[in-house]
């Protein structure tokens, strides 16, 4: 296993005065204190986590921080998407202020995307910004939500509709924690890994088709896939930090995916985010083929691979009843990727050839969805 | 009155891609639609105001916006500091999302500092940022809170402890609205005008000592004093947008002032912000003299002028009982101008010669306050 332990990667995100490092490797939680203390001036650290992750990793993280001289305070929240709420945001801010976390002190998100998004938002608004470290503990958050600085909470009108751009000061992606993920959760994160190939890295998608079993079983291939995903996302973010153009490509599969999540009321027993993205990416390729922008063979190839790894690829793969197409359209219209009433979609000319289309007629989307729901 | 109407000022705040204009003049609300539509792409406008201001100016503003083709939605909140809360922030976000305000649409703060701070915060976090215009309707907000991009709400631990930096896209300071302010409210705003002289513009303080009556009675001297104040603040903000150094000078009088506000539980019948700043500025000059940094004559000169215009200048000017010095110190320690446990204060070498001191012993502050409270 020594090759696994030594295959540590560093991805630097060069965002000027907001530049930061992403470390990817085995056992980073156990030496978090050292990595953080070399980068942060303050000596207070607040750990925000959830019940599931906290039970496994809060102790080791706190020990490491205290060994390096940090005073720690901790808050453990319920696990699950419902935690990304105004109520919990208020609670996190209150805990940080009560602990007198100051601008040079650090707030640490120990958990998946929910904890990262909520904590990053709180760290961005308490005292108008304190230091912030992400320790993502799911594959999804390691390759996606912990990179790029988008933070936020959900509103009753939709997901992630309230938040700030807040780049972390450091990301520690400890690959050892992935060994305790359920197969389903790992697969859901894999959908985002595959997404980077589909956006603009066809050779990465080829590689995943050949090596996905090694990625799932752990070891150097997994670490490499995570590092390559972080690098791919970092490249896009550096080119367009505030999502005025190119960054929208990261939403490949997400407009459909978010609508499906909304339609299933964010019930994780029916659909988790990565699963929605998986179905959404297949739909985006099929919709592109329907508009004669791409070959139907590409859509079939994408579906074949995602199905092979065990991900859902069709709306009918979702358990339970789905609402009519009109309801899905409502969720799409409320999605924040809408400008001046026109629909913006990420479409594709084929595997690794996606692009931003900002003039997609909603009537086309509606009839496409209606067909898909009939099957 | 024609000279009054033509004395319009424009202060440009050159913050790169966050650059914006401040227009200062008579009757700007009546032509807000035109000024906004030339600068904003979207065609939806949300007006956030309070009961008092809304009763006078909401109609004219809405008419102007609709005449220029905006669809408007409005929210009227209770007047007063208590509105700067998480609950009202949630409410504003909900209204903006329900109205489907998108990134290029505009949110307009029509009111004083409370409405401006709350609305600017909401506009900065809904969809991670939509367009934002300030129409400040108090002297205080025209010369201070609407310039510089600090937004936020209060927490139970203190004022303005949660928020974001969010520069507006435009500020319209309509001087006509100042005619409806109470004398007390105008005076409170005047404390911040005088502050700019005390920070680093001794010649402006001289000018105010000679011309304050004209500033109070309206006309060109008033518009000029407002424009000069906006320019003074803009200069400091441009030099240090995120308050890492020089910007802290704007807190002259504010550390003591905030503590007094906290001690009177933000009860505006006892003390409003500008009054706290007035007393705080005198205290800052007296404290500087006590530390042998400035002449006691400067403190006397500052007190004489502020007293002449009718502002409170001593803790004993505040009606009702004050807590002991230890309680005031607690509020000071929770103030966000604290780094690594040491007290940061704005001290002075004399009128117009203030500076940031980041090593003020809290024991000195405590004994100074104890003396002041005994009188």
TrEMBL record, chains A, B:
| Cited InterPro entries | Dehydroquinate_synthase (IPR050071), DHQ_synth_AroB (IPR016037), DHQ_synth_fam (IPR030963), DHQS/DOIS_N (IPR030960), DHQS_C (IPR056179)
Which reaction(s) does its UniProt entry say it catalyses?
Answer: 7-phospho-2-dehydro-3-deoxy-D-arabino-heptonate = 3-dehydroquinate + phosphate
Q: Which cofactor does it need?
A: Co(2+); Zn(2+); NAD(+)
Q: What class of enzyme is it?
A: lyase
**Residue span, 3-dehydroquinate synthase C-terminal domain:** 189-338
Please give one Gene Ontology molecular function term for this protein.
nucleotide binding
According to its UniProt record, where is this protein mainly located? cytoplasm
Per its UniProt record, what Pfam families does this chain match? DHQ_synthase, DHQS_C
* Enzyme Commission number(s): 4.2.3.4
Q: How is the cofactor bound?
A: Binds 1 divalent metal cation per subunit. Can use either Co(2+) or Zn(2+).
Pathway named in the protein's UniProt entry:
Metabolic intermediate biosynthesis; chorismate biosynthesis; chorismate from D-erythrose 4-phosphate and phosphoenolpyruvate: step 2/7
Gene Ontology CC: one annotated term: cytoplasm
Tell me which residues bind NAD(+).
113-117, 137-138, 150, 159
Task: Indicate the segments forming the 3-dehydroquinate synthase N-terminal domain, all copies.
Answer: 75-187
Q: Where in the cell is it found?
A: Cytoplasm
- Domain of life according to the entry: Bacteria
Q: Which residues bind Zn(2+)?
A: 192, 254, 273
Keyword Secreted in record: no
Q: Which family does it belong to?
A: Belongs to the sugar phosphate cyclases superfamily. Dehydroquinate synthase family.
In Swiss-Prot or TrEMBL terms, this protein is called 3-dehydroquinate synthase
Q: Which organism is it from?
A: Allorhizobium taibaishanense
């Amino acid at each position: 296993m020594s090759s696994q332990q030594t295959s540590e990667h560093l991805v630097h995100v060069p965002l000027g005065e907001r530049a930061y490092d992403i470390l990817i490797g085995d056992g980073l939680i156990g030496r978090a204190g050292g990595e953080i203390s070399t980068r942060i001036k303050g000596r207070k650290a607040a750990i925000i986590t959830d019940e599931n992750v906290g039970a496994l990793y809060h102790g080791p993280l706190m020990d490491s921080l205290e060994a390096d001289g940090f005073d720690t305070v901790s808050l453990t929240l319920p696990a699950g998407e419902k935690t990304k709420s105004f109520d919990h945001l208020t609670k996190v801010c209150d805990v940080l202020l009560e602990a007198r976390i100051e601008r040079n002190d650090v707030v640490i998100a120990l958990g998946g995307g929910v904890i990262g998004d909520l904590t990053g938002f709180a760290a961005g608004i308490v005292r108008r910004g304190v230091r912030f470290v992400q320790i993502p503990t799911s594959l999804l958050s390691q390759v996606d939500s912990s990179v790029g600085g988008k933070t936020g909470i959900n509103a009753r009108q939709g997901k992630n509709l309230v938040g700030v751009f807040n780049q972390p000061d450091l990301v520690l992606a400890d690959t050892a924690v992935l060994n305790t993920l359920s197969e389903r959760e790992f697969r859901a994160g894999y959908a985002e890994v595959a997404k980077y190939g589909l956006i603009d890295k066809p050779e990465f998608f080829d590689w995943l088709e050949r090596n996905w079993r090694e990625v799932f079983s752990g070891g150097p291939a997994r670490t490499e896939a995570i590092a390559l995903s972080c690098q791919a996302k970092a490249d896009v973010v550096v080119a367009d930090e505030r999502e005025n153009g190119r960054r929208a490509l990261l939403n490949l599969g997400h407009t459909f995916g978010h609508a499906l999540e909304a339609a299933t009321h964010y019930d994780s027993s029916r659909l988790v985010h990565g699963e929605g993205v998986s179905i959404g990416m297949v739909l985006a390729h099929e919709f592109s083929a329907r508009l004669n922008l791409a070959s139907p063979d590409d859509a079939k190839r994408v579906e074949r691979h995602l199905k092979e790894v065990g991900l859902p690829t069709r709306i009918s793969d979702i358990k339970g009843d789905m609402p009519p197409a009109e309801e899905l359209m409502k969720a799409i219209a409320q999605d924040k990727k809408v400008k001046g009433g026109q629909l913006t979609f990420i479409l594709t000319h084929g595997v690794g050839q996606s692009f931003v289309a900002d003039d997609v007629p909603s009537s086309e989307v509606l009839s496409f969805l209606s067909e898909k729901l009939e099957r």
